[in-house]
Structure prediction request, 518 residues.
Amino acid sequence: MLNYYEKSGGKYINSLCVIQNGKISDSISIRDFDADLSEYFVDSDHNRCHKSRFIDFDRDISIGMNNDCDIQVIFDTAPYKIGKKDYYESLAKIKSGENCNVILFSGSDGILIIAGAGEILSSAYPFDENADDNGRKIVYDVDLDLTAYKKAKNRAMKPTESYNDIEILQLAFPDGDKLYRKISQSPFLPDSQEKSYRNCEEIFNIQVQKLAERIAYTNSKTSVLGISGGLDSTLALLTTVYAHDKLGKPLTDVIAITMPGFGTTDRTYQNALQMMNSLGVTSREISIVNAVKQHFSDIDHPADVHDITYENAQARERTQILMDVANRERGIVIGTGDLSEIALGWCTYNGDHMSMYGSNAGVPKTVIQEVIRWFAEEKISKSEFIQDSKVLKKALLDILSTPISPELLPPDSQGNMNQKTEDKVGPYALHDFFIYHTIRNGATPRKVLFLAKIAFDGIFDEDTIRKWLKIFYKRFFGQQFKRTCSPDSTAVGSVDLSNANWTMASDTFGDEWIDEME
Prediction:
C-alpha cells in the first residue's frame, strides 16, 4: 500500500493505492488532515477516511477510526519527535482494544506498529539498532478469529455505514505456518515475575474487597469455611481473614473448620492446623467419619465400596456441617471452589459445589498457586496481625508442593495420598490453557489444539493434549447444570462462569467441538 498525491484540477488529492503482484489493485482518495497544506491539497469526496468491509485506510491514528473493519492501515508523514513512538503505541493499543481489530501503522519517519485487540504485537522505530532492515520492516502474525470474537461480544460495536470492496489476494509468506508470537503456557499470568506478582496483588485485593462487601451487605457476624490444607481453601481463608480485617471485625469471627474424613492425610491436616493457628482465627475440628458411616448404614451402602456415592457422601456431609454452623453462628459460608473446577464441573453437586458466596470462583487453579506463592514471598511480611509468619509461610510453601487431591479415598499403606486430581481429570496447566483460549478468546477446538501443541512442545505430546482436550469439552458441556445453580461469586478477570455472566443451556451437546478436534 502506497500513500501518494494525484493531481486534480490544479491541486492534489491525498491518495492511496493497493499494489499486489506488480499491479495496482485499487486507488482510493482519503482525507488529508493537515490543515496547513490546504493551500496545495484538496480533500477527497468523502468526509471520512476510506472504509472497506475488511480493511480501513486512514491518515490519523487518533480520529476517524472505523470500528467495524478487521484491519486498520494507518499512514503518517509527520517527522519523528521525542516521545512519538510511545504515544502512538499507546494510541494503537487503546484503539485496537476499543474497536476489536488490528492496526497496522507505518510512518515515513520509520515508526512501525502492529497492534491487535488492545495489545502491541510488534513495533520498531528508526533508532532501534536491532530492528530488521534498519527498522523498515516488521513481520508478525495477527489473530483475526480473536478480534472477530471480541467484536461479536461487544454490544457497543456499530456496523460500518458504507464500504467499498477491494479484492485482497492471498500473500505467500516464506515461513509458512510459523508463529512470530510466543504462545504462553500460562496465559492467565504475565511472563515476568514482577508483573505476575503485581497481578496477584490486584486479584487478592479484588477478592478481599468483594468479600468484605458481601459480609457487610448480609450483616453476617461470622464467616464459616472448611479448611482442607489444599490450595483453594488456603486462598479462601487468607482472603476471608483480610476481609474481616478490612471491616474492622475480630479475626476470631472467622470460623475455620477442618473436617477429617476417610482420605485425609497427616500432611494436609497439619498444614491446615498450622494455617489456622498462625492466622489467629477460631479453629474447629469436626470429624465426618462417624456421620458418614451412619449415613452409609441408613442408605444401605457398603462402607468398603469406594464408588461415587462413597466420595460424594463425604463432600455433602462437610457442606451440611458448614451450613448448619453458619446458621448457628449467624454467619455466611465462604465457598472455596475455583474457576478451573467450575469449568470442569469437578465438584460434588450440592456438596462443595454449594456455599453462600464463592470467593475463588473467578480465579483459575494455576493463578491460585501463583497468588499463594506471592502471598508467602511478598505479602506475609507486611501483615501486622499474623501471629506466626514463619510457620504460616512454611505451611503455604508446603501446600504449594502438595499434589492436588479431594482426599476422599483412603490413603495407601504408608499413609500417603492415594487420589490425585490431575491423574483423573488432567493437568490444570492444560485445562487453564483450554479455558483461556476457548472462553476468553473464542478459539475453535482445532485452533486450541494447534496453539497447545506449540505452547507445550517438549512437555506434552499431541496425543496427550488431544486426550485432555477431549475430556475438557466433555466435562465443560456435560457439567453446565452445576454452573446453572451456583452461588453468587467474585468476578475477578475476563473469564466469569457464574450464572450471572455465563448463559448456557444445561443440555447443550459438545459433540461438534469434539468432532472438529478429532
